[in-house]
Write a structure and sequence with these properties.
Elements: H1 16-38, H2 44-61, H3 68-75, H4 84-102, H5 110-120, E1 139-142, E2 148-152, H6 160-177, H7 182-196, H8 203-217, H9 228-234, H10 236-245, H11 258-280, H12 290-299, H13 307-313, H14 319-331, E3 335-338, E4 345-348
Antiparallel strand pairs: 1-2, 3-4
Helix pairs in contact: 1-11, 2-4, 2-9, 4-5, 4-8, 6-7, 7-8, 7-11, 12-14, 13-14
């Protein structure tokens, strides 16, 4: 049986890049906490946008998709799922809402993890929701010639319940001792969770939901306002690359979690910097009207952007205010409007 002892992490030396990333995130966290206390109402829009992006992106990584219009309707409960993909999208939304609203009351134990997994698949009606895997699973790679190669064989089904129990106990023990920074402990926990691969299906989505849960419980709630899952989906090539490396020597305790720690910390830091960029347009010394706010946003764009992009990055404005500002900026020649209908986008007119 694989053993877990996270207390050893306290004595490990970490690359300076990891140390610097942790320090920067601590700094950003302090500033975010201050802003949240000062202007909680203004952040409501960011929360709703992040929920949509998180649900869409985490499922998209697994090839579970629907249209943007259907996604918004599903998230707003304005329609019902039409197929298995949409059932699973709604399941993710349900678990994400639970984590947002009740993270302080969710224990890191096998029972709670199984309940989250059950809720993830509740709408799909599959029998394996809320149960550990019943058959051996494998981490495979498909070669260019179509051949399937097994890269790693996770823990077998009969050892999985005990492995998850040991994993959770090791995490709680290390957390209670307060000798390992949670920003180090959380990625290592997720690495081991993925190597156990405890479910027949949903391991990737559960790993991302657990990442959010553990971050929230330790005071790092940037994912509530800026989608961590979207950042992962946007860098999924790197994500897959580091995941392929975390299991080398895992059974012998010789695997190297550093690449995954570095990757996840970079994602978290990117979310914090995005948060500051967006709330900067809400600050007292920021532009005070929709026209100026959208103009400042447009001035920072190097390529094309849509009205939806502007809506996401200017959370203090309504859809109609942004549409009016974009129209005025286009009429003035500051922006160039391209495309039509849903394919409409804008470019800054640099006179070239």
């Amino acid at each position: 049986m694989k053993t877990f002892d996270y207390t050893k992490l306290a004595n490990q030396s970490w690359p300076m890049e990891i140390v610097n990333l942790v320090a920067k995130i601590h700094e950003y966290k302090g500033r975010q906490d201050l802003f949240i206390r000062q202007k909680p109402v203004e952040l409501t829009r960011l929360v709703e946008i992040a929920k949509i992006q998180s649900t869409e992106s985490s499922n998209k990584i697994e090839g579970i998709v629907t249209t943007s219009t259907r996604m918004r309707q599903l998230m707003d409960d304005k329609t019902t799922p039409r197929n298995r993909d949409e059932d699973e999208i709604m399941g993710y939304r349900d678990v994400l809402n639970t984590i947002h609203e009740s993270y302080d009351y969710i224990k890191i134990t096998p029972a709670y993890i199984l309940q989250l997994h059950k809720n993830l698949f509740r709408r799909s009606g599959v029998s394996y929701g809320g149960h550990f895997k019943s058959v051996q699973n494998y981490i495979n790679e498909t070669l260019p010639n179509g051949e399937n190669v097994t890269l790693f064989t996770p823990i077998p089904p009969y050892d999985t319940p005990q492995a998850i129990d040991n994993l959770c106990q090791a995490y709680e023990q290390a957390l209670a001792q307060e000798k390992v920074d949670p920003l180090i402990l959380i990625p290592v926990f997720i690495c081991d969770f993925l190597c156990i691969h405890p479910f027949n299906d949903g391991n990737g989505r559960m790993s991302r939901l657990l990442t959010l849960l553990l971050l929230y419980q330790n005071g790092y709630n940037v994912g509530k306002y800026i989608s961590i899952e979207k950042k992962i989906e946007e860098t999924k090539d790197v994500y897959y690359e580091v995941l392929q490396r975390i299991d080398l020597g895992w059974y012998e305790g010789k695997n190297d979690p550093v690449p995954f720690i570095k990757y996840l910390l970079q994602v978290i830091l990117a979310c914090y910097t995005d948060f500051e960029d967006r709330v900067g347009l809400m600050s007292e010394d920021a532009p005070s009207n929709a026209y100026e706010i959208v103009k400042v946003y447009a001035a920072e764009q190097l390529g094309k952007f849509t009205s939806r992009d502007a809506l996401i990055h200017c959370p203090s404005l309504s859809r109609s205010s942004i549409a009016t500002a974009l129209r005025k900026l286009t009429e003035e020649g500051y922006l160039v409007k391209k495309g039509a209908g849903r394919g409409t986008y804008y470019l800054r007119n640099d006179g070239e």
